[in-house]
């Protein structure tokens, strides 16, 4: 019974964490709309794989994270640059677009599983998120510091991530179809989200230490 609670807790925390509109969630919608659901699922699984890795690093102990703080600091600044560039070119693509075409991020032959891994890896904000939640759950006795609990919690979180992205895949596809939204509008939306994500990450980098 305790294992079910741990799994469901991990699922709920991760699912709710995916609900706020962000670059990864809206990308899953774009792939579903502009390509197909198979590619969207590949992308979502790629995102979940990296999130699981970040979570396991967090559960392994903050000491490891602190010893590798420079790596995550570099990754954080790289995220700012990449998101700003993607935001700028998304706006430029939408501005020059006179016919229906894919979003800038999808104008390539990269396997969507690899794309999901890449975008999730450029999101080091997951580390503080999981550090806060795992500490809270450990302190309140919901999660116990042992191999089995950590594995069940991690599986639950990975499932929650995929569930949240699936909501954007199918719900977003339904909404865009219902509203008859053009790809040009989607490019503008994606550009705005990338710029906003870059500014949020910049604030994190300038306003506080990694953890």
Automatic annotation (TrEMBL):
It is found in: Cell membrane. It comes from Limnovirga soli. Keywords: Cell membrane, Membrane, Transmembrane, Transmembrane helix. The keyword RNA-binding does not apply. Pfam families: LysE. InterPro entries: LeuE-type. It is a multi-pass membrane protein. This is Lysine transporter LysE. It comes from the Bacteria. The chain crosses the membrane at residues 41-59, 71-93, 113-138, 150-168, 188-206. One of its GO terms (biological process) is amino acid transport. GO terms for cellular component: plasma membrane.
């Amino acid at each position: 019974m305790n294992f079910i609670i741990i799994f469901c807790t991990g699922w709920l925390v991760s699912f709710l964490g995916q609900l706020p509109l962000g670059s990864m969630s809206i990308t899953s919608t774009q792939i579903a709309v502009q390509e197909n659901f198979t590619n969207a699922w590949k992308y979502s699984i790629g995102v979940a794989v990296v999130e699981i890795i970040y979570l396991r690093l967090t559960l392994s102990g903050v000491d490891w994270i602190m010893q590798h703080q420079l790596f995550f600091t570099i990754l954080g600044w790289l995220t700012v640059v990449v998101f700003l560039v993607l935001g700028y070119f998304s706006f430029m693509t939408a501005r020059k677009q006179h016919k229906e075409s894919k979003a800038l991020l999808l104008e390539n032959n990269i396997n969507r599983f690899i794309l999901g891994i890449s975008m999730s890896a450029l999101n080091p904000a997951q580390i503080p998120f999981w550090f806060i939640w795992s500490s809270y759950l450990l302190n309140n006795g919901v999660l116990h510091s042992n191999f089995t609990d950590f594995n069940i919690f991690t599986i639950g979180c990975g499932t929650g991530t995929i569930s949240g992205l699936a909501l954007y895949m199918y719900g977003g596809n339904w909404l865009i179809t219902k509203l008859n939204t053009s790809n040009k509008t989607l490019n503008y939306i994606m550009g705005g989200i990338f710029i906003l994500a870059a500014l949020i990450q910049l604030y994190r980098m300038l306003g506080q230490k990694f953890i």
